[in-house]
Amino acid sequence: MEKGLLFVISGPAGTGKGTVIKHLLETGEFFYSVSATTRAPRPGEEHGVNYYFISREDFEAGIAAGDMLEHAEYVGNLYGTPKSAVEDALAEGKNVILEIETKGALQIREKMPQAILILILAPDIQTLEARLSGRGTESADIVAKRMSEARREVTLLDKYDYVVINDDGKSEKAAQDIRTIAEAEKMRAFRNAHLKQKFI
Predict the structure, then answer these.
(1) DSSP state of 197
(2) Angle (deg, nearest 10), helices 171-186 and 17-25
(3) pTM, 2 dp
(4) Long-range pairs for 165-168: beta carbons < 8 A, 24 or more residues apart
(5) What is the C-alpha separation between 149 and 144, in angstroms, rounded?
(6) Do 118 and 160 touch, CB atoms closer than 8 A?
(7) What would the pLDDT profile of 127-171 be if each residue is shown by its tens digit?
């Protein structure tokens, strides 16, 4: 069985990553690997579905035990990817999606060089700020911190393989762009080296 492909999706808060990923998961083409975090759940989020919501103590114990494929601190909270779930899904031939901030994504690139890194962006900085402010779930101070972090994240654009723009009301198109990327990646020559055996 061929191993699955690993897709790492990043993007500033407010770019609509969650909505785009939801569209991708509707077709069954991708397996979503749930990340762990020490932040509190937002309204409507479920443990084990959106994130594994765990204490900082338990998270740090997982890091010490080598159970995290990557981890990073973002706006005062820890985020990370449990290693075993990703490795098992790839071995089963599933295409795995990780939703990870940029620091963690670059850690994945070091450990798994064949990972495909995709950065999702809003059309511009004004749209991003309007989305964050419009949520109404975070203070002005947190929004300002997220905007500052967004500017930092965009400076890492050239570390990614692909950039996908998620325009207002067009999240399905952004998801389709990622499906197109997945199809192209399957046809990369180095992933099809076994075909030489049929001709030589």
Answers:
(1) G
(2) 60
(3) 0.84
(4) 165/120, 165/121, 165/122, 165/123, 166/11, 166/15, 166/16, 166/17, 166/19, 166/20, 166/120, 166/121, 166/122, 167/122, 167/123, 168/123, 168/127
(5) 9
(6) yes
(7) 888 888 877 677 888 888 888 888 999 999 999 999 999 998 899
